[in-house]
Amino acid sequence: MLIHIRNVLTPESVKDILVQLGQSSWGDGRETAGYLSSRVKDNSQLPETSPLSHKLGNIILDTLDRNQQFISAALPLKVVPPLFNRYAGGQAYGSHVDGGVRPVAGTSLRVRTDLSATLFLSAPESYDGGELVIEDDFGERSVKLPAGDMVLYPGTSIHRVAPVTRGTRFASFFWVQSMVRDDARRSLLYELDGVVQRLGGAESTHQEAVRLAGIYHNLLRFW
Q1: Which residue(s) pair with 135 in the sheet?
Q2: DSSP labels for 29-43?
Q3: 3 state SS of 190
Q4: What does pLDDT average to in each consecutive run of 10 residues of the chain (223 residues)?
Q5: What is the largest CA-CA distance in the chain?
């Protein structure tokens, strides 16, 4: 399931992050790619151990801690600190699958990558190309979101970034280990939680909402 989470960052936050990214030093994105991915990866990446990467990543994580849609959709147990990339001048990232386990730089931690996330930082009208193309059961889905919006999708998906032929595309990306490993079960819980929240807002259905909430939490315990 692909989930579009709107307004993760405010326009002011996005602007401030872009200013800092524009003044930073970038490295070759292939340095963090696996053997197969490095063959098709052509972008620039902020070094994951840089102080700026930690600073900006923490801003995103603090915001996501308060984002109820992200929590409901991902049911996060562990999150890899956000990384930052840049595409320009025809750069692209060919079809690949993210590694199943991701180390956290500078630590002994390992995170199972149940979910992948891309947070768009550049306004879509400021660059041509750069779509995140994700393959799922219904074919290819092309994603190009407003600055500050994020897409969450299964880490098992084959995906790519189309060439950026004009302007510059900045984004943050990271992975999530969920409390519920299976995507189908996680999707059902997300839909069920949404129904519970909507029913909970109507006084006439309070008891039904309580019963449905009980089913949700029992399934969460079971899975």
Answers
A1: 140
A2: GGGGS-TTGGGTEE-
A3: helix
A4: 96 98 90 77 93 97 98 98 97 95 93 98 98 90 98 97 98 98 96 90 73 95 96
A5: 58
